[in-house]
Design brief:
single chain, alpha/beta, Rossmann fold, eight-stranded mixed β-sheet, two-stranded antiparallel sheet
Length: 274
């Protein structure tokens, strides 16, 4: 097992440029069975995995990322999206970001809601998720990766699209604060000085990547202009990008969002690739 981990580590360093920090060891990952936990770079990320009825190799792997949960609580609200992915024939994985809990399992690391401003949305968290996604793709024999991110999870997915070009083929960004400095100014908040910014990574996203964005018309946290401006810039870069406003929906991933026709259509597009 140690030799396998070392080989995968070397591969990821070669492909993604990850640093030489040690991976979370199998003994520390409860274990890293790639169904309930997966190794990242230095952290052990908790999972809730939903498998389709047909588990033949070549399936699409759909990774769902939750928001910052600033009011506390678990990330269980993303589980139904991963379950929907499995119902559509994909491998659905709800991934708990570093420091977060979901389904009574907790990822190692520090949650964004507990970090100081200078430590929020930094490259290390993006790289943890990218490394974990790479491992899961290999474990399941998946042909491609789709990421679905909500709020802070949309930041992670949006950055990964360009920071690790080619890792993710399609993405659905829900309530995305896709321009971090503008988002902070809109909310009257202090800057996040070291935050990775999704809109700054557009130019590195490979041609052919499909991006869908959804934001509620009544979202007072991540206003619609943040995703709309991102979509406009991505379209100008030649990317297949569509933004849709959800009438009457707020910020949270409630039925007003997840039960909307726009959500169902966008989710189907990124899962099925058409």
């Amino acid at each position: 097992m140690r030799r396998t981990i070392a080989a995968v580590s070397a591969l990821l360093i070669m492909v993604f440029g990850f640093g030489a920090g040690a991976f979370a060891g199998d003994d520390d990952c409860r274990p890293a069975d790639n169904l309930t936990y997966v190794e990242g770079v230095d952290e052990c990320l908790a999972l809730r995995t939903y498998l389709p009825s047909d588990t033949a190799p070549g399936k699409t792997l759909v990774i769902v990322l939750h928001g910052d949960l600033s009011r506390g609580g678990p990330a269980d609200y993303i589980f139904p999206v991963a379950e929907q992915a499995a119902a559509a024939g994909a491998i659905g994985v709800a991934m708990m970001r570093p420091g977060y809990t979901g389904g009574s399992r907790t990822s190692t690391g520090i949650a964004s809601r507990k970090e100081k401003r200078a430590q929020i949305y930094t490259p290390d968290e993006m790289d943890e998720i990218a490394a974990a996604a790479t491992r899961l793709k290999a474990h399941h024999g998946a042909a491609e990766i789709v990421m679905v991110g909500h709020s802070g999870g949309a930041v992670m997915a949006g950055v990964i699209l360009g920071r690790h070009p080619g890792l993710v083929q399609r993405a659905l960004l829900i309530a995305c604060p896709c321009d971090i400095p503008t988002w902070r100014r809109m909310r009257g908040r202090n800057p996040l000085p070291n935050a990775e910014n999704p809109i700054d990574h557009i130019d590195r996203i490979p041609a052919g990547t499909v991006i869908r964005l959804l934001t509620g018309s009544k979202d007072t946290n991540t206003r619609t202009s943040l995703a709309a401006d991102y979509a406009e810039k991505a379209q100008a870069a030649g990317l297949d990008t569509v933004f849709s406003e959800l009438p009457g929906a707020g910020h949270n991933l409630t039925d007003a969002v997840a039960g909307s026709a726009q959500f169902e259509a966008a989710l189907a597009e990124v899962i099925l690739g058409r």
